[in-house]
Specification:
The complex is a heterodimer of chains A (621) and B (198). Chain A has 621 residues and is of the alpha+beta class. Classes of the chains: A alpha+beta (621), B mainly alpha (198). Chains A and B meet through α11 and β20 of A and α2 and α3 of B.
């Protein structure tokens, strides 16, 4: 049965959810028994592609071939990518689109293709859970994503073989999940601090109508920035051997360690750790919660401006409630900041990691059914759309926070006698000058009948659809001729390129779909077996002989399944092994944990490619 | 008018066919007010407008037509867009006033025309000076005060415009006076935006 699904394609983690026959939104278990799929993709030389926790574990040893946080590159053209986002990835910016060089230099993939890999996995897991190919899907995007970023997300969905019914803004999705769950009405703010993006939306909830009044944000602000400042500080004093310019690999390792330390400080007052980094470096870290808060305060304060603007744009002095979304909002400092900004205790009773996917599932269900009585979303365009006029000034034609779908028309005339063409440059943003705004599209209108200057009347209609994406059409009024306009994004994939990629991926998909499943589950099986062997070596004494025998019996069963071609069997054996080793894992945790001042191996505690299976770390969006 | 789907009779201004309930193209006789069944006047019950906007959105929003045929999807997009535009214009008294003038054939701000208002020039200079001074001094309190005063002026303008619209006999004089106030309102909006830029 083709059920519609909702997808949260996050910077750090991705999720997929659906509405079950009893009308309850549910997330799907997608990776190693959890609903969070790390948004990590590893391209091995030779063509194998891994997605999720398995890919993330490759990051320390093969950083260039492992893409993390690809969302930061979506819809960005050559020269657009910020230095702090580049990390260790290798880029090919020689063409009209940005490509990441992976697979040991053998492949160059676009961010859209990387995102499509993540989406494919989510689609597959959903298909397994639903017992059939999903119907349409809703994919969420940051509310503050511009046109190019949205278009790229849609393209990634198509490439993954998904029917994208709608792009949904993340805060709106969260409000939907929250509003339906709690059955509330009133004015709500959604404060969404993810791994890489920050959104603030103000909504009115009224009898099933979710009306966005204003939205604001920053597409380069998130939990990743916390990690960066913490890593920088830790390396200042704790990096050995000392170096003023750590390599990207060392930087990435330090940032990963910083993230673990930061998360630990949510519940502990101080954390100490010794971490091995690539290239023979070592990080000695000690951080208190006070020190952490002092470090991240400037980052958290960057959320204040957008919040104040959004409140002002909404015309409201205050709201009835503030909903928190995104793993980074678990940080105590962030919660205090939100309380101070909005004058009330924020609402955090829904899981900030899953709420967006659940909302997306509800919207997908609504669209699939041609509407639900209890749900109608009225969203807005986050940034004004304008056209460059003479002198480089922008004339705004659709203002920010206009309810979508929206449209506006403009009339132009010719400047020169006999002029038959016109170039229109569409810009997004609030700046006065076109060069300061985000260039969205430049198109040429051809075929204007030759006339004296000033006589031709060209009417251009700009329409923003329900996805927040711009469509343009034109009509020459004196002759009544309608023109089709080739709106070419100023960079990015053209329609033909997307089609080609799609055909290629379908051709491959048919051939190796099963083979790929088997390969992936074998890889997973290998990891589990290897980590268990290692665990036996380190902590074997924690198990009584019969207990160990029971585990080894299951491991043998797993090995047997891995030799075959039935991926479901491998999967079942993995679950069986998992079930049998829970007690062992707990005993290991007890043995290794020391509270507060203890010297802790952060990578072991976090499970990054080492001994134990990963514990239940809730990731950040 | 006949319905494109069932060929039954339809009334020009309703969104749905009386017989088969399929969504219809936007009619020629509709103006923004008729979309909401509200009287064509300046005085407007804004909460009522909001209520009707939400109600009509429920019926016309493209989300309701995600699984319908392409023609219906296109029509719903057109209607929803128009509803959103109408809502935006009617909600704001300045835009509403300009719209009413346009409906009456007086497009005072069309084609980028600006209103010639020499008596206002001196006041404009005073405001600019006060702003510049407050900025130069970094005087946040003064800036807030300027914004508050501009808001007060705006409220007076709104009341004056309301009174002008009540005048049943629309002499060109009335139209000009309304346009003058709309132009000044625009100026005060800029002052407020400037002062609050922070």
């Amino acid at each position: 049965m083709a059920r519609a699904i909702g997808i949260d394609l996050g910077t750090t983690n991705s999720l997929v959810a659906f509405v079950d026959p009893r009308n309850r939104p549910q997330v799907v278990t997608v990776d190693e028994g959890r609903p969070l799929l790390p948004s990590a993709v590893h391209y091995a030389p030779g063509g194998a592609v891994e997605v999720g926790a398995a890919a993330k574990r490759q990051a320390p040893e093969r950083p260039v071939d492992t893409i993390l946080s690809v969302k930061r590159f979506m819809g960005r053209g050559p020269g657009d990518i910020r230095p702090e986002d580049r990390g260790i990835s290798r880029f090919d910016e020689s063409g009209s689109v940005v490509r990441l060089v992976v697979a040991g230099g053998q492949q160059a993939v676009t961010p859209i293709e990387v995102s499509a890999e993540i989406l494919r996995v989510l689609k597959r897991r959903a298909a397994e859970a639903l017992g059939g190919t999903p119907g349409g899907c809703v994919i969420t995007v940051p509310a503050y994503f511009d046109d190019a970023q949205r278009q790229a997300t849609k393209d990634a969905g198509r490439l993954a073989g998904l029917e994208v019914l709608r792009l949904l803004n993340e805060p709106t999705a969260a409000a939907l999940a929250y509003g339906l769950d709690k059955q509330v009405s009133g004015l709500f703010a959604v404060y969404d601090l993810g791994g890489g993006t920050f959104d603030i939306s103000i909504l009115r909830l009224d009898h099933g109508v979710f009306e966005v009044l204003a939205t604001g944000g920053d597409t380069h602000l998130g939990g990743d920035d916390f990690d960066r400042v913490v890593a920088a500080r830790l390396m200042e004093t704790g990096l050995a051997p000392r170096t003023a310019t750590p390599s990207p690999a060392v930087l990435r390792g330090a940032t990963a360690a910083a993230q673990k330390i930061r998360e630990a400080l949510t519940t502990e007052a101080v954390v100490e750790a010794e971490v091995d980094l690539p290239e023979g470096h070592r990080l000695s870290a000690r951080l208190t919660r006070e020190e952490l808060e002092a470090l991240i305060l400037p980052v958290v304060e960057r959320t204040t401006g957008p919040c104040r603007s959004a409140l002002k744009d909404s015309g409201l002095p205050t709201v009835d409630g503030v909903v928190l979304v995104g793993g980074a909002t678990r940080t105590p400092l962030v919660r205090r900041h939100v309380r101070a900004l909005f004058g009330q205790e924020p609402l955090a009773d829904l899981d900030p990691d899953t709420v967006v996917a659940l909302g997306a599932a509800v919207q997908a269900d609504a669209l699939d059914r041609g509407g639900r009585e209890d749900v109608l979303l009225l969203d807005v365009i986050p940034l004004s759309l304008g056209v460059e006029m003479m002198g480089g000034v922008v004339e705004k034609i659709i203002l920010r926070n206009s309810t979508i779908p929206a449209s506006a028309t403009q009339q132009f005339t010719t400047y020169a006698d006999g002029q038959t063409g016109m170039v229109i440059h569409v810009v997004q943003g609030e700046r006065e000058l076109a060069r300061d705004g985000r260039s969205l599209a430049r198109f040429t209108l051809k075929g204007i009948p030759p006339m004296p200057a000033g006589l031709a009347r060209v009417e251009i209609t700009y329409a923003v659809d329900a996805d927040g994406i711009l469509q343009v059409s034109a009509k020459e009024l004196t002759t009544g001729l309608e023109q089709t306009i080739q709106v070419k994004a100023t960079y990015g994939l053209g329609e033909a390129e997307v089609e080609a990629m799609l055909i290629e991926s379908i051709e491959h998909a048919e051939a190796d779909v099963t083979e790929r499943f088997v390969r992936e589950w074998r890889v997973e099986g290998d990891r589990i077996l290897a980590s268990l062997e290692s665990a036996f070596e380190l902590d074997g004494e924690l198990l009584a002989p019969p207990e160990r025998a029971a585990i080894e019996e299951r491991m043998a069963g797993l090995r047997g399944a891995m030799a075959g071609q039935d991926y479901l069997a491998i999967k079942a054996w993995i679950e069986s092994v998992d079930g049998a080793t829970k007690v062992f894992a707990e005993r290991r945790m007890d043995k290794h944990i020391k509270k507060a001042m203890a010297g802790r191996r952060v990578d072991e505690f976090a499970g990054e490619g080492r001994t134990t299976r990963e514990g239940h770390e809730e990731g950040e969006d | 008018m006949s319905c494109w789907s069932c060929h039954g009779e339809t009334v020009a201004s309703t969104p749905f066919c009386g017989s088969c309930r399929r969504i219809q193209p936007v009619g020629r006789t509709e103006d923004f007010y008729s979309l909401f069944d509200l009287p064509r006047e300046f005085a407007l019950d804004v909460p009522e407008l909001e209520r009707r906007f939400r109600e009509r959105s429920r019926q016309l929003h493209p989300d309701r037509f995600a699984k319908a045929e392409p023609r219906e999807r296109r029509l719903s997009l057109e209607r929803a867009t128009r509803l959103n535009d109408a809502h935006r214009i009617l909600k704001d008294w300045r835009l509403r006033a300009a719209y009413l003038l346009k409906l009456a054939g007086q497009d005072v701000f069309g084609d980028g025309k600006t209103f010639h208002d020499p008596e206002f020039l001196e006041e404009q200079l005073e405001w600019r000076e006060a702003l510049a001074l407050a900025r130069a001094d970094g005087d946040g309190e003064a800036l807030l005060g300027i914004a508050a005063r501009a808001r007060f002026r705006l409220a007076s303008l709104e009341a004056e415009v309301a009174a002008l619209f009540e005048d049943q006999e629309w002499f060109s004089e009335t139209v000009r006076e309304i346009a003058r106030r709309l132009s000044r309102a625009r100026y005060y909006d800029n002052i407020i935006a400037d002062a609050e830029r922070g």
